[in-house]
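Model it.
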Amino acid sequence: MSSTSKNPGPLARKVQAAIAGTVQATPAKPARPEPGQPKPVATNPAKATEPAKVKPPKPEPAVVVTAPPKPPERKCQPRWTEPDKQGDLVWEQPGRDELTETCQNVSEIPTAEPNPGLVIHGRLVRVFQGWNNRPMLVLEVPRATEQCAGKKRRRGVRWFPWRYDWPVTAETASRRSTAANGYRGMNVWLTIDPDKLAESEETWRTAKAELTQWHAALAAKKAAKIAAEVDSGGAGS
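Modeled.
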């Protein structure tokens, strides 16, 4: 064997060193799985769960406190003792639309203390509505004697609405309020004065007859208006 094969020269050693470095740097390929074995499944590291976001509650709507509606103002109504706004002016107490067909009775008036009913007697008076001359009935009564700071006040006369279909007797009663025109008033019981019962009966008969005539005149006026409309329609056709 020659000395050249045992001791390679410098060039040969560089070539051998380069070949050895290439082989070491080349990574080994992963071994193929044998048939029948499952392939490895890549797994991702578990992610940290974030806490659920909690929505803040919606603010409740503000409560709007409104004042209770004011009751309708009770105002006196003008009436006259004669048709066409003639005669004396009478201021009727409010509440005619509150009257019912069935009146009350004096037996319903409380008498026990400490709150006995305040009873005021009066007489029937015939009056007329201003805008259509309709005859009406009112009960004319003296004002209740009321105490204010130890002094009596508000004397005079009031006129309360009355119905035609109420019996003209001393037993007929009506519980009414004297509140009107901003005055707080009080509750009273109204009855026909027994000493003026005959006068009130005559007033009722007179007013009832005038009311019947008023309704008849109103019906005739409506019939004439309808007839005039029919005649004008026929003339134009």
